């Protein structure tokens, strides 16, 4: 149970010092183009180019990145089955009678749509990974402040952020201690052991909350939180590059909007 | 001595972290007292977590009773039963709602019968001197008490090897002494003990073998004398030299004659200075009285003390201390008892040690050894039932 | 159960965002009012949020491939009420998508609706109702947590089915299909969460 | 010396808890270094929390700059600005997601202007040697680094009195030394410093005044010599005697002549033994060179070292250490520098101390005092720009 958060990787990535607004623009831009694309080509292009950026420029370990790409796989495969069998149009490619009551069919239309949804998912996830792996949350708080997200939301997020890491470490230690004493043996014990860990963590959290009140009071808390200083290295050329890239992707998406995987036009 | 656990060229890197172990070779023999010393971040805790399979090395082999260890469920259970691990912070280890339930956690998971669970818990709690605390919630205990409960939780599983990560951290002097004495007791009863610490004052007099770590590597290992005598290595491990050793070396530098054995305690030091400086002094020494707590009835100790005009009293072990408490005897020494009594003897004063079991033998051995080395003759008088 | 980034097409992701936003805004308004009265609540809520994230990030025993689960938000709903939970849940889900790649940005609206609003609210009301009729405490806890999970899973299936209705028969067959494929993991998960929840409360009450 | 804070017959009981303070009288003068020592549960932390109004006494008065303190919001803010409190565990103190934001927390809430916030944070971080860590999240820092950040967060508010609860707990020797040296630096720059600790080895040589607590009461207070000399009181406070003092007393008991000043360091001890034993030795001493880091250009130190055949080098203060690092000079001493150089001088070896500001004066004073007491003549050579 040693947790690896993308945030920790982001803190040391190769694009750490690029202005965060530019990175967020690229990430969100790609997500939006990807999700509104009518063809699988633009999302696929986004997947490939952002993956290259993540590996080559942000210098994320390729093995680790591959592992990350498998995270959404379970969800993607189960959800795509429904589309594959229920969104039928065009010619039938495969059919399977079930218990003589109904027939499961896959058609060219459903394959086209499945491929499109999968490619959007892939484009979307790669963009999300780009955001998560290159732009630490600590920098995003400043961005949120700049676009006037309400203070109470940012302040609360910052405290939550801080305590996620304090508590996850504690949870890891409790889990180790339980494992060493052979907890999590059978199902019943597992439930019990896990519940005890969660309960203990809850009580510890409560105590930490009360300590935090004290810590803030000793430092004259008056309802204000400091924000991080701006990164000095905002560069126009980076911004221009991102705008050019997004325009190119958008153009690809527009030009290829009629193309589908098996060549049929979607009905 | 047979080797129980052996690490061969172990390497380990935390995911997305630095390389924590860079090729460790390390061996644990039965019955040893090993201190792994190093600064924070030297890799001590990572090494300890290898010993009971909580971390799996990236490369290298772990040999458990001579065979290469395989990380399957059955083997892991076996290893964890044999190698007990006491965490630095008891708060993450003892989380059950009551002391009893916490100590019973391991035995229940081992599948012991109800009777055996009950007896294991009882025995473990009495061992650490926490009988009577069964129904208390752990969060109401003091830091030292929590540490003892954590130890009981591991002892109840009856492991052969006990691993302690920073056993005295956050404890005050009295608490630390209690814990260190418990470690000694466990050692005497046949357990192999491994501690990790950055407290050199603690490791120096305690350990049989010291392993000095720095940056994921073992810099050197050997007897405490050998390791701490190598000043530049200790310094490169970002540790300090034990203060008595520092004083000794300053004196050597100033021309004092060096001695075979380095001074580990105030007694050693006094003895060293005397050898050097007061060589011709002839003094009559005090005696050390020794009472076996298993062999005397409650009530008779005070009587013995009055009769024999004893000036200082020390007790070793939970049973002896308990008896002293019952008889309302105020104890002068509860830690480093033998050495302190020897010091008293050199000052012509009689003292009494109350203890039991294997520690009786230990007192005799220590005094004999002291007499031989210093060519003195401090006498032990063992209490005999009439 | 999170919907991954890119899975929901337009206009559905926008619709769920539009539905979730007013809840968030109202939650923030309530929160601000609460904090104006008592500023000491902010650190407590912050730590509670951290706890909820951590609880949902821990892998439940015996369930393979389960990612996050909504137990934490149900706990929050019972402790702080649904509106505050909506704000905390929103932040936690945002962090989950960015720290663990569970969920996404466009799908955040849909995930917030199912996991931080409707699920916890259902759990909350079930708990309140059972509490009112003096139902056995631990049984109520189990049922509330179970319902919270099941409702979350139903809403997620509903969101997916609305986005991808079956060509023949429309919405209902699709809903049935989604409920079907996710039942394999989600129903055992709901039972386990109910049990874990009971243990947690037993633990908290004993202490 | 003017009294800043005074506690008069303070009593306090935790809700549902035991009585933690049973009538405390206690006074803090400007510019003092006070160590509050006691076992766990003696009431040290509770007492500290009184000092900045985190706890309100059940009875008794607190006098702040001579007036009875009133617990209203405005006064509390003022008190907390003046009395900075550094918690034992930095994880409970660090609030914000980055180092910069955390250190800026106090200044922002004090309503400083943006510029002033920026400069306070910059200064505080450079003071504790953590410049360059501004954008890092706290959970990626080591224990020692977190401790420094916690200290910077308080320093940025520029308090007059700094209160540290167990400043070195869980730190390894190097980390502890760094922290203790920071405390000394703060003290020299005019702050009043109060620490609580159960580490007697730490408190004994460091403090101007020691307050011994036990069971919610002050057992005694006074100079470290007075307090630790009273063995039975220290014992009843469940603390141990510093090891050098213990050795000293064992030797006194054996007939060594007692000295006016008790030995606090290895140097003191060597000096003491020599006075007693090697009185007639006539030795030529080594010299101590002294470089003011504010007064030399980078690059010139190495040159000076080669020219003057210096055998050991010590640095005091962050600036001096930084300069040594830039010039890649390996430092032999980073803590207890003056004493260690004196020890070298007694062994006929020349050493160099690099430091700056008020600490220059301190070196001169310490050496002068040493020369007077020991009737020796160790010479200081101050570097002068040509």
TrEMBL record, chain A:
The keyword Cell membrane applies. It is found in: Cell membrane. The chain crosses the membrane at residues 25-58, 64-86, 93-111, 117-135, 234-255. Its main location: membrane. Keywords: Cell membrane, Membrane, Transmembrane, Transmembrane helix. GO terms for cellular component: ATP-binding cassette (ABC) transporter complex. GO terms for biological process: cobalt ion transport. Pfam families: CbiQ. This is Cobalt ECF transporter T component CbiQ.
TrEMBL record, chains B, D:
InterPro entries: AAA+_ATPase, ABC_transporter-like_ATP-bd, ABC_transporter-like_CS, ABC_transpr_CbiO/EcfA_su, Co_trans_ATP-bd, ECF_ABC_transporter_ATP-bd, P-loop_NTPase. It comes from the Archaea. CDD domains: ABC_cobalt_CbiO_domain1. It is a peripheral membrane protein. Its main location: membrane. It is found in: Cell membrane. One of its GO terms (molecular function) is ATP hydrolysis activity. Residues 5-240 form the ABC transporter domain. GO terms for biological process: cobalt ion transport. GO terms for cellular component: ATP-binding cassette (ABC) transporter complex. Keywords: ATP-binding, Cell membrane, Membrane, Nucleotide-binding, Translocase, Transport. Belongs to the ABC transporter superfamily. Probably part of an ABC transporter complex. Responsible for energy coupling to the transport system. NCBIfam families: cbiO. This is ABC transporter ATP-binding protein. It comes from Methanochimaera problematica.
